[in-house]
Amino acid sequence: MKAEILAVGTEILLGDIVNTNAQYIAKRLADLGITVYHQSVVGDNPERLLEAYRLAFSRADLVITTGGLGPTKDDLTKEVAFEYFGKKSVVHEASLKIIEDYFKKSNRVMVESNKKQAYFPVDAVILPNNNGTAPGCIIEENKKIVVLLPGPPFEMKPMFEESVVPYLKKFEQGVLVSKVLRVIGVGESSAAEMIGDILDTQTNPTVAPYAKEGEVTFRITSKANTYDEGIKLMEPMEAEIRSRLGNDNIYGEGNVTLESVLCEMLVNKKLTISTAESCTGGMVAAALISYPGISSVFMEGAVTYTNDAKINRLGVKKETLDKYGAVSSEVAAEMALGIAKTAGTSIGISTTGIAGPGGGSDEKPVGLVYVGLYINNQVKTKMLKLSGDRQKVRARATKQLLDWVRRELL
Amino acid sequence: MKAEILAVGTEILLGDIVNTNAQYIAKRLADLGITVYHQSVVGDNPERLLEAYRLAFSRADLVITTGGLGPTKDDLTKEVAFEYFGKKSVVHEASLKIIEDYFKKSNRVMVESNKKQAYFPVDAVILPNNNGTAPGCIIEENKKIVVLLPGPPFEMKPMFEESVVPYLKKFEQGVLVSKVLRVIGVGESSAAEMIGDILDTQTNPTVAPYAKEGEVTFRITSKANTYDEGIKLMEPMEAEIRSRLGNDNIYGEGNVTLESVLCEMLVNKKLTISTAESCTGGMVAAALISYPGISSVFMEGAVTYTNDAKINRLGVKKETLDKYGAVSSEVAAEMALGIAKTAGTSIGISTTGIAGPGGGSDEKPVGLVYVGLYINNQVKTKMLKLSGDRQKVRARATKQLLDWVRRELL
């Protein structure tokens, strides 16, 4: 089966946003063994959009669109698709009800134009939108299939996973089985080098590295007749990759995050934790609290941005601040100890650093961050030298601190 | 002049990388007043690539490609373009010399295939590559122009700025001037309805709405002979949009964030602030601390996830917690007051809510969040009913609280 991805939106043509949807869908179609030869972008213009459908269906059997399902008159993707297929649309009562409820629940006024989002041909497959008002849909006609998805990635991705993937499975020939290994503490090029010969000689299973902010993932994919066969096929490669990269560096598999892995360990081991943050300013606490169920072990966080707050809240000594400065190993240690003691937790963690862009010096440059960890009645610190802008330095410090705690609990 | 952007590379079709080049080039062409109606992606396949050139030149005068200028046999963008234009290529000695020097300098062995990168038609305009081995080029023939650029963004962008922009200036007809208005507190469909007649009748300037997580932006674009004329042309429309949407709802222009706008206000007004968070767990503090220079006004944040922490850290009364529960207007008020008093700040803000997925009840469902604001010696609270998963509820609560503080400071 050949597919095309068609993004609709003048904001992409103007370069206001990056078309990340195309990449997401392309990757998932590749996983499903569906071939993509073309991706296109067209604006919110009915003539060019109709022409884009004609072109796409002249080359492919399946066209997946993103964007243009909104309530405004600019949003035409659906209407032009119906025109292309010669279909009339009527109100889909179940969708209308959901849209009405959505507005009620969020205390917003539903306007007339929102109703447009509930209009579909009677034979369309409706794709529910659990994260917005625009449902998607699938139309199948004479072996041509169009899948219409909303533009915002946080609406599109869940809809794709929940409704489109199960639908497309029926076209799958054999099964593709994938497993993602999540690696932290090894750079992408080092990681790729460590398994260079595997990358060069891969056939089935295949392995693809992908670098994300501070992490590398390896997706192993095998093609087989059954799921179990596929899993079996990838086992030797997975074992080899794990042994080359070091098992400690692989923090999880599949759709997990570093914080969820750490939080699960904390909850299972019943280890209480508290945080004392300066430069990260709440990011460490926010990451931990993203985990549902963390309330049984997360006790308290302090964002002690000023010296006074460090002294009053955490009992950091004024002399320590005077002698070593707020950004120092000594202060990180007293912060971690201080929050653990006042919050009465088994673990206390801390950050203090220079996130920039200002505030750096030769001795203490932007990107210098000390992290502290109180655990097993001992306090330790680490010095991190991080690159990137203010947000990156803060995010990287958060990640490295959480990873440090994870490794301590292995 | 009409242009198209054509990215060449199987790695984009497979979803291994995001096509950020298209966005960069689209934005720069818009700046130059060059219209883009289509963007496409095609793989490293000679037949489909030739067809892509034919299609693109049937719709546009200028085609800008990225990718496929490398030394391997897969890299065909240049060769197929020469074929399309019926041009022979010969070695370009100056380019060959640069490539040879590049290898010498980086102590790498130059292989035969690298010479391919120095082959061009005699009448091509060569675009030097100061960040890699592949030169780009421009071919102009019968009023059709192809610009061939390398794929890696760190090679493509400087080449575009150094060589392509000066070349394209000669085709510039007037300028496109854009301004983005950032709206919060009004949904996309309501906002679009409020200016429906403007959206319907727009010609020059134009206005385009775009929805992002909890916000809507309106991009006004005018086409004029000079920048000043363009600005003048959009003034009446901007004034009208501002008056329809309500100036309070427009929090900023251009590339700003809600938190940066609020933090600038706080710093300018010298208003100190502190935060007490339960369900948002540090996100409010982290958002404020994302602003460089916030240290002059942000004093302290408390992540008081447990009742004990609320009592000990913030002086929330045990009776209040017992009587109304942790998720209540009363507790939000005591938290905001408590943090402002202990941190000694002019403003104290608080959050307490049920982010889910568990913990909800009929009376207090998931998504119920109370936010508190202590300001001008008064404490107020607001009840929010938010939709979405745990992360969305927390992010939306953060945004609405920050927006509330912003409105109080107007």
UniProtKB/TrEMBL annotation, chains A, B:
SMART domains: MoCF_biosynth. Residues 4-171 form the MoaB/Mog domain. Gene3D superfamilies: 3.30.70.2860, CinA-like, MoaB/Mog-like domain. Pfam families: CinA (PF02464), CinA_KH (PF18146), MoCF_biosynth (PF00994). Belongs to the CinA family. This is Putative competence-damage inducible protein. It comes from Clostridium estertheticum subsp. estertheticum.
